[in-house]
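Chain A, query sequence.
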Amino acid sequence: MTSIYEYSEADFVYITQWNSDEMTHFDELVKNKWHTMHEEGGYFRYRLKMDGSKVLPGKYKYLAQLNLNRALHRRKPIDMQSMQQKFDKHIFNFTKMDKREILFEILNKNRQHKGNYLAINVSPLELGHCLLLPAMYSCLPQVVTADGLLAAIELFLLTKSPAVRMGFNGLCAHASINHLHFHFFHLQQQMLLETVEVEHLAGPCYVLLSFPSQGFVFQLSKHTDIQEFVGNVFKLVSFLQDNEKPHNIFITRGSSFQEKSPNSVRDHVRVYIWARKPACEAKEDAMFYPALCEMFGQLLFRKRDDYETVTEEVIANIMTDLTKEPFQSVVDQVRRMFQNP
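Chain A, predicted structure.
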């Protein structure tokens, strides 16, 4: 019998800080369950062991990581041929996973949207790596829904650690399974995109131009209406999906866009959205798969030689090539969309 974790808006945390060890009940529960399962064995495809980690010299502060076990033992990703690819019940999806992998069902007691689950990712890239599975038994393809996005933002707000991150890889954007899911994990490293300056585009939408992966970004604070915030993010993501623009999403704690001298306090949530060139298959000889983590600046290398010899210039060129043209092809339409809501 799957347990249920109930929460309400009173449990949301809007202000976090680096160098603080405070945790919510939700933080403690996920951490304890995940670590117990990892130590017991029999749940994950491999034991999480980072074979290398370093910040690349340069202004972008890219974090390079080497996880050879993930490269060797993760489930082979499903090739995605179309942004309109349907859910296929005959191939692996999350209804077929071992039910012991489910930590609990997530339920907002004020809304009673049932069927959202949190499960371990059996091929972890970081500590506490889980999957949020919105409306799991509805068997939806890997396309963001309004309810799914709301569930992701609410789940994120249940945590008090600025190290918690979430994200989404869309179809033809290195989604590995065509069944609606968001990634949830801890990254104990302060990253540039938590505090980097962005430029206002229109309405609530801002743009990231001072980083090789150019994209769009929204911010949430304790003064923001969550439903309105989710509606704005969903408006952009739906536009990209409808226009068959592959995309990745990253959710992180950050400083206010208006903060000119950020410190260790993270009192906003930033949601980055990148339009990008399509990736319909995962090539075995790839240095890394440029997905949600790589867009954010966390590079998951598959081979030791690449990890040891890579430079910031190489990465910047890859990410610019991946995002610059797709961003420029839609930015004027996005501006008009938020100028005239």
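The longest helix spans residues 312-339. The first strand starts at residue 4 and ends at 7.
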